[in-house]
Amino acid sequence: MAISVFDLFSIGIGPSSSHTVGPMRAARMFVTRLKKDGVLAQTASVRAELFGSLGATGHGHGTPKAVLLGLEGHSPRTVNVETADDEVERIRKSGRLRLLGAEIGDVHEIAFDEPNQLILHRRRSLPYHANGMTLFAYDSAGTPLLEKTYYSVGGGFVVDEDAVGEDRIKLDDTVLKYPFRSGDEMLRLANETGLSISSLMLENEKAWRTEEEIREGLLEIWRVMQSCVSRGMSREGILPGGLRVKRRAAATARQLRTEGDPMLHRSEWATIYAMAVNEENAAGGRVVTAPTNGAAGVLPAVLHYYMNFVPGADEDGVVRFLLAAGAIGMLFKENASISGAEVGCQGEVGSACSMAAGALAEVLGGTPEQVENAAEIGMEHNLGLTCDPVGGLVQIPCIERNGMAAVKAVTAARMAMRGDGSHKVSLDKVIKTMKETGADMKVKYKETARGGLAVNVIEC
């Protein structure tokens, strides 16, 4: 299996990669399949059933909205985040769906009764993964035309039922120049070739794209991250969802600007950058999955920290940062999970913290051993982190949690840079431990909103 950095960092819509981006992609895949099979014109009705974590916290994560937009052919990357709510309101008021209309232009409109045709099963799960959904299509006589089950396995990745039992990631047999599936293999290749972690990843990325395309694609991701931080630090008000959580990034940024030299407040700025992103994510804005939406603030925050507070920072460093982060994120995706519904928030914020720590060590001039050490520190101190969103919304504790992880990533990188890269616990060991901890974790602590803060904080 081969994973590209562009699989881990994809441009999408908030508030959740597994509950918004994945279901939107799955719904779009379903209607695209109807067209491919030549039965779209015959389709008179569709039904969607959401299971496991999708059913338990789907309303808080905007999953019904995502499914409706996906059925109309919208993609997380290109959907207009400013008009998406209006599109959903039109569907709900009219009781009509334009199947694949956003893609093909021709409107195949059908009746749609959301309460009866988009069903969230709060306590039923499918066998393969906690984020499962099944879609059905029927003709005017009620005869089934297509039934497909999809799993949103974290970070916006989607696999259908045909992939069950094969792997948790989409199949890709691309031959890479320097393939590695573990931290030990990564370090061995770096030592044998004399290449840095980011250079190893760059050579592998060339299996799909030219170096110029890779650079431009990563800088586009950086521009989206910058735009997201900028929006988050300029917008105020109350976040949607009913908890009445107030945006804080903009007001805090104004306060810091009046307090003198930004270098004296670097940690606070890192926190604010992350919170700005996750406030935008909670509001359904445009974000980069890094590696998930729930953890989308950590890498942009640390990358802003690098650009704003590290002398000599430049766009070449941005590219190297994202490549190194992708190399580390790939190890988590291959060997454990980045899905909060599967292993808790350690798989989301923990993985993001590890990726950001290793990437920062890379652009600070760290050796491959120091990069691996920084990534290990970043994950080790997030082990056991539960996913217990209050109200099923990615607001409490998610927004602050990203801010804390950004600072932790900077600290981990700085600690690793003070050493020579030797340490007792390897990155591979900590990834294995994270996976085992997730398996042992009770289901109520894995994005079901049935445990932890989700039940001990009064929603008001």
From TrEMBL:
It catalyses: L-serine = pyruvate + NH4(+). It is an enzyme of class 4 (lyase). It comes from the Bacteria. Pathway: Carbohydrate biosynthesis; gluconeogenesis. SUPFAM superfamilies: Serine metabolism enzymes domain (SSF143548). Pfam families: SDH_alpha, SDH_beta. Its EC number is 4.3.1.17. InterPro entries: ASB_dom_sf, Fe-S_L-Ser, Fe-S_L-Ser_mono, Ser_deHydtase-like_asu, Ser_deHydtase_bsu. Belongs to the iron-sulfur dependent L-serine dehydratase family. This is L-serine dehydratase. It comes from Streptomyces nojiriensis.
